[in-house]
């Protein structure tokens, strides 16, 4: 599974970071970084929760 981000709609509110801080990071300049673009299996529940919880629907998961 691979995380995709629509950076055009992400507003860097860090909801995803709050739910999966090992995978998503919003820096001091309000830039989102995906720390684990291909998240390991043990993180997937949290990643899916973060994807569903993004208020801008900027995140998606894809089979690669
Ligand atoms: S929750 Fe969505 S809008 Fe907020 S920082 Fe994460 S990807 Fe961007």
TrEMBL record:
One of its GO terms (molecular function) is iron ion binding. Gene3D superfamilies: 3.30.70.20. Its cofactor is [3Fe-4S] cluster. Keywords: 3Fe-4S, Electron transport, Iron, Iron-sulfur, Metal-binding, Transport. The keyword Ubl conjugation does not apply. The keyword Metal-binding applies. Ferredoxins are iron-sulfur proteins that transfer electrons in a wide variety of metabolic reactions. This is Ferredoxin. The lineage of its organism: Bacteria, Bacillati, Actinomycetota, Actinomycetes, Streptosporangiales.
